[in-house]
Design a protein that fits this description.
Helices cover 27% and strands 31% of the residues. With 271 residues, the chain is α+β, with helices and mostly antiparallel strands.
Length: 271
Amino acid sequence: MVGTASCTKQASITTPLSYYFSLNTMFSSLRITRITPFTSTFRALNVSKTSRSFTTTTPSNMPENLKQSEVDAQTDPSVAKQYDNESSAEEKFKDLYAIADGIKIGMLSTYRQGTGPVSRAMAVSKRSGPDFLFLANKHSNKISDLQSNKEVNLTFHDKSNQDWVSVTGEAVKTSGDDPRIKEIYSKVVSAWFGDLGDGVHNGGPEDPRMYLVEVRSKYISYYKHTSGMLGQAKEIGGAVLTGKVAQTGVLRELKEVDIEQARKSDSALTS
């Protein structure tokens, strides 16, 4: 269940190198012959391969046109434009669950004394509403980390469309006798424990090394794409040419009060 450990920060929007290669190819095929200063018109953008010419204009009344004194965390378009404050909580959780369930493997970060944040890849054994259950070896470093500091961060990233999820929470339970271990156990888990040949440490659900880790969410942010790969490349390219802010998806936040309500709703549905 454990991947290579490495230090990590909170999830951030990442862009694959292929995007940059494709954008560089697109831009290198454009030859700007003349740009008049302080005008919004590129006088000539010639596509070398097709010999077709076109012009593009930058809107003179862009909403991003702000004075230096007017730019802050609420008005900066590179920040404010990304946030979705209009969707309902129901829609936000529905999309969150779809993204997390589709990825299945995330990076679980714990805090290690004297080192700092340490992360490793973990397969989610079960998602219970906004919370996550894992199976882990009680002798692993992650368990010793959690014994001294229960705060965790869990991240997911889908490189195919740039969706990501960041969960801040607590490991509210790390136990070897939780009955849910048998419920969420699958045979493939034994591959990460091995059979020591003593009839006890066999990688099964009753192996004394088998621990359940329950991560209870306190704050969640996630990014959901709103355009495909081609649309994202077009949006980024257009933003570079016009000075606008690219928008390839929406950023959403779920705070503790929202999460607690979703947890209660999920419990009511499953009870």
